Amino acid sequence: MHELGLSEGVLAVALQAARGQRVERVRVRVGRLQRVAPESMEMAWRLVSEQTVAAGSHLEMVEVPLQLRCRSCGREGQAEDLVLCPDCGSSDVEVRDGDRIEVAEVELAGGEVRRNPSSTVTGKER
Fold this sequence. Notes:
- This protein has two helices and eight strands.
- It has helices at 3-18, 38-49, and strands at residues 23-31, 58-64, 66-70, 76-79, 93-97, 101-108, 113-115, 120-121.
- The strands form two sheets. Strands 1, 2, 6, 7 and 8 form a five-stranded mixed β-sheet that branches. Strands 4-3-5 form a three-stranded antiparallel β-sheet, with no helix packed on it.
- Helix content is 22%, strand content 34%.
- The longest helix is centred in the N-terminal third of the chain and has 16 residues, at 3-18.
- It has a domain at 3-64 and 98-121: hypothetical protein PF0899 fold.
- The protein is an alpha+beta fold.
- 29% of the residues are buried.
- The chain is elongated.
């Protein structure tokens, strides 16, 4: 369950943005390539945020589609999978988006929303 490591990374960003204030909601952009199971991520979030200023907060996930550019034919756009270009079948593709998790917003108890508080979460923060 890699969602636990990802949740720990998201929490670190949220706590840094909150600076000790109570967190009500955290919005994350979840790249399709991360293959995150929403239910597992929510369960992991509840677990890692316990006994912090983010305890009881809502984790809002927005899926980011996989965006590729084929180096062989030049096609750019969405794809379902990373393996092959949907147009020419080449495996020489570059990922443009949809491969990471980013904390987009942290909403605090007073209603203040801190946007883009940090950057990307890798899940390797353990």
